[in-house]
Target: Tetratricopeptide repeat protein 39B
Amino acid sequence: FHDAINNKLELDAHLQKPQVETSHYVICDKSPRMAHNTIELDKNLEEAELAIYYFFNNKFDEAKSIVLSHANTSMYHSMGQAVFSFLEAILTFERAHILQAGDELQSCLDICQKYRRKNTISESIGKKIKRTAYYTLSDMEAHAELCMAEALLLKALLIFAEDESLTTLIKCGVKIRHCYNIYKECTLTLSNREWQSQISKVHFESGVRMGMGTFNLMLSLLPASVIKLLQFIGFSGDRDAGLEDLNRGYKTPGLRQVLCAVTLLGYHLVVCYILGHQEGDLVLCDDILQTQLQKYPHGAWFLFFKGRLEFMRGNLGSAEYWYKMSWRSQNVWPQFHHLCFWELLWVNCLKVDWREASLYASYLVESSKWSPTIYSYQKAAIMLMLPNLTHNESQIIDTLMTTAPTYKQRIAGKSLPIEKFVCKKTERYFCQGKWLCLPAVELMYVWNTFKVLSKQHSVADGIYQIIERKFNELKNTKTQHSYDADNIALCLLLRGAFYRQMKKNSLAIKDLKACIALKNAIKDDKYIIPFANLEVGLVYADENQVDLAINTLEEIKKQYTCFSLESRLHFRIHTTLIDLRKRVAK
Model:
């Protein structure tokens, strides 16, 4: 509570700064009813801020107690309750939790609707809006617009998580366009009206910055084909503008300041490394975490992100320490434990500690419901890396490989691409006489953890030796098998990607070109060739041969289609092209 008071003092100090003059606008109604609404809003914002403080310090029961007290009458209490349910639904993907979150969000929308002015901004989209519409809104009505946008966005994402059919995509697109336009109107409302309460203005600004920043960032990550569709229905994304808004929101001591911090950490520490090949802003992340861990020293979220920061720096021992701190910091949300187990699994794979990695893989198989198919295959893949397997261990692997495809599920209306990839690998395991070529190292590449190799050469050497031994073993085998080309091509891709991370560009190009030359001989693993071309393009980018890199990446989109992990490749190409074209523009 002491830290919550400090947050309040920080906000008060911010409010003492000179405010922008707004005397040229019409003054808001100062009626007793409006004054009462302003007091009520400020009180609700204060309680919402305390709930957020409790939530990020793992005091979940206290946070829920606050939001439940007025969830049926206050839009901010209702929003808090809806957000808690939404997070649980996304973390579990369980049908019951998704339905409950949908009900909570609809309740929040109903409450927001009661506080909105009739014929308000968002209902006039597509029409010419009078200038007076912005500053004649009361503070309560302005916040109702903002909460409406947030609830609409979460509801659309939840609907899309249930069913990703074309009809649902269009339906969600309309909802998201609606809330995006509300956010844009809220941006104008922020500056084009005189605020009854400067406290509510600061909280409103943090919401606008978070909403517009997240939208721009999210849309900028989507591949060109999706962007064309979104622009057709009124969207476009600007990554730099999104990051600027989120940074401004983080520096504004408003209600959503901590949410801006979480979004920035998620982008720079997770998204950048999974969907792209560029580095996140680790200096910014370090600064954010130092501040947030002072406010939330036991917070599972920030302890987790601290572990992720150390992981991306290549400090595997330190990463392991912080992930375990996050895991052991709370027991209310076991789903958060699973995130830590996932990360600890890959930390130990990079350390070539297959026993420890298989332990965390076992935890995921036993306790997480997200994707039993992926978890089962990952455990089997890691166990296959163990030397001198016992008879019992071989039986466990066989069972995992047999059962993994039976758990295949439909999330967002269709099968996960990575699950399809895994199912093909389980088939290969039996077709090849119960073995696979470097299955765990292949998964490390697929999940883009090779990026860490360049940060820690001692770790990199262990992975290199494994790839090198297997490659030489395959080259020296006299017996021919139908999947020889697939396995040799995989080794060349992995070694070429390794060389690129170690800045040995000539060796990387040599291996990648040899891999691509096996194109017609590959029987099953067709994904290897477009990914090898991607690595070639990235080598050119590293050498600052920008035009050649752009041409190489564009050709991949034209030449290759219908292969495993295609959408993952297109995301990585898209994010790389953004950076390359920025270089050209300079």
